[in-house]
Write a structure and sequence with these properties.
This protein is of the alpha+beta class. The chain has 16 helices and 23 strands. The two termini are 42 Å apart. 54% of the residues are buried.
Length: 473
């Protein structure tokens, strides 16, 4: 059973873990917030979290404010498991604001107490906090606070920021945030739900996405615009780098709390993380991925009988690749959609089983054919090797692997779960060595220049540290 609704003095949910693994870059959370008195905010937040489920499958939570108290329910598992009934909101609560979160933990943080939103009670009242990203100096700040007497219950940056707010000495939440945010370094989008307002803020490099929308005359915030489409909201704009937006009965207030010299949006939002129907920085993710495939075909054409993509993030790139070369596009792989998006696991046998359970080639489509398989990235190489072997066993004559991004050579320290550099096959081997390792007939990656051309944003507006080793911070 999952946790029932409770206020800031309640307990957290039980643990539930996926046992299958796959070596992909993994996102670390999705957030949604709405301030709309008189609306059914539990249902709309629930719907929005379904739309953001791809950003985290470890836990989910919803906090509701009734103007005096904040009610919270969260637990381990998918949104449908934590909230099995849409009528599951707290009885008798007339909410004016809501905050929702789906969680994927970085390694070492997969514990029930890290589920969010985090609900705290301090001298200024109740506060629910949720975030997406990573404060890279969190360890230093946490150690300093612990020496001063602070006690931490979780490993989250939400709790760290809550401690800093409580210690700031400011009676107004906005003033407290303005005073403590300069101490935080990293990539983050935070949402705060107080009794009478919702606050969203974005780091000065805008590494993690956060968008502002309008729903039934009220304002909403979400990690991706696909959540707006799901609930019937209108997209207004992205929250700006270093901007804090305050939403209350007075309307919307924008405050530039941190100076910003440049943006550094994670380019992997376009390659893998974001849902294809989302718009990020004015770019539709599906169309960007299709251009990735087209440019990949121009850079590395191949004579083949058909093109197929690895579901789901590579399907658009595969269609673009096929169209560019005039090759047939086929559904060569079937995805089992009932085991969820899988987690990185250290055991190789478990990773292999996870791939077999999740993906299966259609033998009648690929048998005796020269097949081009388009994928978004290669991390460890274990999944790619398994995929190639699947096609070979299904009777494919040749298996040409084309990757819609450059080789990953460095880990991410901004909230994306990646292996150490020593585990990244792109950092340890040349392309031909990787091809031999995974057993493909041929292997080629999209160039960094091609990736930038497909995304259509200036190089200095993106974080590409995993491809270049050049970290914005």
């Amino acid at each position: 059973m999952f946790a029932s609704w409770h206020n800031s003095r309640g307990k957290q949910g039980n643990n539930q873990k996926s046992i299958y693994g796959i070596d992909k870059m993994e996102e670390a959370c999705g957030v949604f917030g709405v301030y709309a008195p008189g609306q059914d905010l539990f249902r709309v937040t629930n719907f929005a979290l379904y739309a953001l489920q791809h950003r985290g499958q470890e836990s989910a939570g919803i906090a509701l404010s009734d103007g005096q108290n904040i009610h919270l329910k969260k637990g381990q598992g998918l949104v449908a498991e934590v909230f099995p009934r849409l009528q599951g909101g707290p009885k008798g609560v007339d909410a004016n604001g809501a905050l929702g979160h789906v969680y994927y933990s970085a390694r070492g943080k997969a514990r029930p107490e890290n589920a969010q939103p985090l609900l705290v009670r301090y001298r200024q009242g109740n506060l629910a906090v949720a975030y997406n990203g990573n404060v890279i100096n969190a360890g230093e700040l946490r150690e300093k606070l612990e020496k001063e007497g602070s006690i931490f219950q979780t490993m989250t940056d939400s709790e760290l920021l809550a401690h800093l707010i409580a210690r700031s000495g400011h009676s107004k939440l906005e003033s407290a945030l303005q005073s403590v945010l300069p101490a935080l370094h990293g990539a983050y989008s935070f949402l705060f739900l107080a009794e009478d307002r919702l606050i969203g803020l974005r780091d000065p490099y805008a590494m993690r996405p956060l968008s502002l929308g309008r729903w039934r005359g009220h304002y909403v915030l979400a990690s991706e615009t696909c959540a707006f489409d799901t609930i019937g909201a209108e997209i207004i704009r992205d929250v700006r780098p270093g901007e804090m937006v305050v939403i209350s009965k007075e309307g919307l207030q924008s405050i530039q709390v941190l100076p910003s010299s440049r943006t550094a949006l994670c380019v992997f939002e376009f390659i893998y993380f974001a849902r294809p129907d989302s718009d990020i920085h004015g770019k539709n993710v599906h169309l960007v991925r299709k251009r990735l495939g087209r440019l990949l075909a121009r850079e590395h054409p191949v004579q083949a009988d058909l093109v197929t993509g690895v579901p789901d993030s590579s399907l658009a790139a595969a269609t673009g690749f096929a169209e560019e070369l005039g090759l047939p596009y086929e559904m060569g792989l079937i995805k089992n959609r009932y085991i969820g998006r899988t987690f990185i696991q250290p055991d190789q046998e478990i990773r292999d089983i996870g791939v077999q359970l999740k993906l299966n080639p259609i033998q009648q489509v690929v048998q005796g054919k020269k097949v081009v398989v388009v994928d978004d990235s290669i991390v460890r190489g274990t999944t790619s090797k398994k995929l190639v072997n699947m096609f070979v066993q299904a009777g494919a004559k040749e298996v040409h692997l084309r990757i819609g991004s450059p080789p990953i050579i460095c880990p991410c320290c901004y909230g994306i779960d990646t292996p150490e550099r020593s585990e990244l096959i792109g950092a340890q081997r040349q392309v031909e060595e990787i091809r031999q390792k995974i057993g493909a007939t041929s292997l080629q990656y999209l160039s960094r220049l091609g990736m930038l051309k497909a995304v259509g944003l200036p190089p200095d507006s993106l974080c590409m540290a995993c491809f270049s080793g050049e970290y914005p911070l």
